[in-house]
Specification:
Number of helices of chain A: 12
Distance between the termini of chain A: 20 Å
Shape of chain A: globular
Number of strands of chain A: 14
Largest sheet of chain A: 10 strands, mixed
Helix content of chain A: 40-55%
Strand content of chain A: 15-25%
Bound molecules: 3-isopropylmalic acid
Oligomer: homodimer
Radius of gyration of chain A: 20 Å
Largest interface: A-B, 60 and 60 residues
Structural class of chain A: alpha/beta
């Protein structure tokens, strides 16, 4: 019988609620496919700050590194908003990504037929959208040095960051993207700002060179400002998008909102070897934390990505995906995706409905 | 009688067509308000590259600097896409912004009742959108040093750029934004990535400090990824947005597409003193250049912004704005904003219709 060690990082806000549900779903799907899990729960973000004074304790790092995959809830909240940078919950998340070297962040944005009305886009524009953003996650301006706030010769403060990509960083994320596109509809759009940024010029050059290894993938390039427009104009034109850390942050959030159901969207962050990090793309929603109102589906679907991309357990993953569709088809909806004629349920009940159909 | 010197920079693609129309409209509106213009046409972008081998000739710079305002058509085209960076049409535009020190770029995104159907957003989401992005235009990662592509110790290529803002650069764009918001609905949203970037931490701190001088303006802060989402979810929540160069590039294009009528949207780029630069936000559309299909309204409305923000000629500006609405109300539409039941016209005819009602 296969056994996997999973690190659970509930984090803040609605994190604990959605993680406890996803854990049950994972266990159920695994047991039906002859797979067992040992779970270890560790603190991260604001929870870790409150407990031990840092947003990513050493113990959490080693537990995560020693496990087969990491499932994260959400981090952050008003309480820690005014903290200094090294004591912000978000800093813990960035440190975790760096510690696990998860350079490839996969963010699908899919409009399910059941939820097409949730989009603010017209039905004919939204329906059938099925794209995936491959975002570089451990480089670029998020981590580049030098960075800081210093006082210049005139006694004036200057804030600065460095956008930087080495060739091998571009190549490895591009390879993940080409391979992902190959398993999808074979179309890859690389997004950059090569008409202005030197880092983007190198990015475009490397991605273009790699295309020779993937003759079955159709590669195109787009400037980031145009991509931000095209996502609104005609999101269906996209299959797989690959881009840098900060552009990926912006475009993947825009794409997720286009689906109208951000409470549905999972993500996977993968390294070359080592455990992957799986998390819903929504935030910690402190305003509804503990009120049984959160949508657990994004975390449940992140557990499915964990099975598929993290452990290669495609069958168990499929069980979860189908169970989510099952619950939706029966008409169950949390508040964020509710519409007339459907059945409004809380976080727990939605979890139970999914569990039933796993 | 008041006289102004206007530098016209037709540029590339549809640029010359739309500039020649806007020129006539400007002249007409001026003459009805007792204002005269001398126009001087100069090359920029690809047109300048073909003529003299650089995208922004010295003569063009001095003509622009010596004039009271600059009206630009559009720059760029396939022909020069493979040029090296210093020989790209876009580089000419960046150099022009730097030479004129136009640090404040105002980009309105308005959904006119006549054109609400052109948006890909649902009618109830799109109607009434009336926001303005104040984008910092001469600093940040667009111009920051060091920048380049170098070979590192391992013989590997590395591409890098510097995002950098000095306190005074933040303060001056923030002041423009507060003052703009004050003249609008009194709401200012400052967009940054202060949970990750040091430059954004300084940005947020300076903007927050300045708010004391504008007690009548309601200031809020938003992370750029969230802003990209909120523009799709509920664009009506925004009045004035202020942000840095690269975030402004992305968000203003996203906002413009939300209106669905990018062929309608003008922009103004202003300096502390000196002439402003006015241009449509659309590109050079090389695919329809010379075919009398372009929408001249964005350039005509840029001429109105030139009158209002560049010369303080509010009455003449109002004439142009009303004339544009007049032509739309009569049902005239260019291809890009055409819908059933309206009258399809070419670029010239649309120009004539506007001219009639000035
Ligand atoms: C919380 C923040 C640091 C993070 C990021 O910018 O990467 C978040 O926005 C995300 O996209 O996961
Ligand atoms: C053409 C390009 C350099 C320019 C920019 O990025 O500023 C354009 O996208 C714009 O927004 O005016």
């Amino acid at each position: 019988k296969k056994r996997y060690n999973i690190t659970l990082l509930p984090g803040d806000g609605i994190g604990p609620e959605v993680i406890s549900i996803a854990k049950n779903v994972l266990q159920q799907a695994g047991s039906l496919e002859g797979v067992e899990f040992s779970f270890r729960e560790m603190p991260v973000g604001g929870a870790a700050l409150d407990l031990v004074g840092v947003p990513l304790p050493e113990d959490t790092i080693s537990a995560a590194k020693d496990s087969d995959a990491v499932l994260l809830g959400a981090i952050g909240g008003y309480k820690w908003d005014k903290n200094e940078k090294h004591l912000k919950p978000e800093t813990g998340l960035l440190q975790l990504r760096a510690a696990l070297k998860v350079f490839a962040n996969l963010r699908p944005a899919t409009v399910l037929p059941q939820l097409v009305d949730a989009s603010t886009l017209k039905k004919e524009v939204a329906e059938g959208v099925d794209l995936l953003v491959v975002r570089e996650l451990t480089g670029g301006i998020y981590f580049g040095e030098p960075r800081g706030i210093k006082t210049n010769e005139n006694g004036e403060e200057v804030g600065f960051n460095t956008e930087v990509y080495a060739a091998h960083e571009i190549d490895r994320i591009a390879r993940v993207a080409f391979e992902t596109a190959r398993k999808r509809r074979g179309k890859l759009c690389s997004v950059d700002k090569a008409n202005v940024l030197d880092s983007s010029i190198l990015w475009r050059r490397r991605v273009t060179a790699l295309a020779a290894d993937y003759p079955d993938v159709e590669l195109s390039h787009m400037y980031v400002d145009n991509a931000a427009m095209q996502l609104v104009r005609d999101p269906k034109q996209f299959d797989t998008i690959v881009t840098n850390n900060v552009f990926g942050d912006i475009l993947s959030d825009e794409a997720s909102m286009i689906t109208g159901s951000i409470g549905m969207l999972p993500s996977a962050s993968l390294s070359d070897s080592g455990p992957g990090l799986f998390e819903p793309i929504h935030g910690s929603a402190p305003d509804i934390a503990g009120e049984d109102k959160a949508n657990p589906l994004a975390t449940i679907l992140s557990a499915a990505m964990l099975l598929k991309y993290g452990l290669g357990e495609e069958k168990a993953a499929k069980r979860i995906e189908d169970a989510v569709l099952g619950a939706l088809n029966k008409g169950f909806r949390t508040r964020d995706i509710y519409s007339n004629g459907t059945k409004l349920v809380g976080c727990k009940e939605m979890g139970e409905e999914v569990l039933k159909s796993v």
